[in-house]
Known about the structure:
Blueprint: H1 25-34, E1 40-43, H2 52-57, E2 61-64, E3 91-94, H3 101-111, E4 114-120, H4 130-133, E5 139-145, E6 168-174, E7 182-186
Parallel strand pairs: 1-2, 1-3, 3-4, 5-7
Antiparallel strand pairs: 4-6, 5-6
Amino acid sequence: MVNAAANPGRHPLADRGHDLYETPAVAVQALLAAEKLPRVVWEPACGRGAIGLVLQAAGHTVYASDLVDRGYGTGGINFLGARKAPPGVKAIVTNPPFKLAQEFVEKALELVPHVVMLARLAFLESERRSHILEPGSGLRTVHVFRNRLPMMNRDGWVGPQSGSAVAYAWFAWERGHVGPAAINRISWKPLPDR
Length: 194
C-alpha cells in the first residue's frame, strides 16, 4: 500500500472507491481519428459520460452502463458478470477501473469482436497479462499518446491540479487478429508544422 503521508500526490487504494477517473474528451477524439469503430458500441464503465458523449457526438449509438449510477447511462450493471453484449453491439470502448483492467479486457473479448481500452502504457509490462497482450491474443494496435493526456484526477479529488505524469494508450483488440500488435503514435494536440 502507498503511504499517502510520504507521497501526498497519491492516495491509498482503499480511498479510491469505485476508481472513477473521467477520460478527457481529447483522448476520445484522438481515438476516433486513429481507429474506425463500429457504429454501435458499449461503454460499460461510463461514469458521467466522458467517453460516451464524445462517441455519441461523432454519430455512434452508445449503450452506457456502470456499476454506480452517476446520472449517465444505466447504473447498477456489473460488467464483469455480463453474459452477453446488448443487441447490435460489436465493440466495447472504455477506460476501465485500473485495478480491474485485465478482467475488463478478458470479459470484453468474450463478448464482442472489437475491444478498445484506455490504459496506462505500463499495462504492457506484465507476465500475468501475456494471454491478452502477446501475438495470437487479438491485440491489433496500441495507440500510444506522444504527449501526456490532461490530468485525470480521481472523482472527488480536491488536491493540486497538475499535468499527468502517466503515459496512456488506447489498446485495440480485434477477434481473429493473430499477428503482433502495431504501435501507432497519436496525439491530442495539433502536430507542429515541419
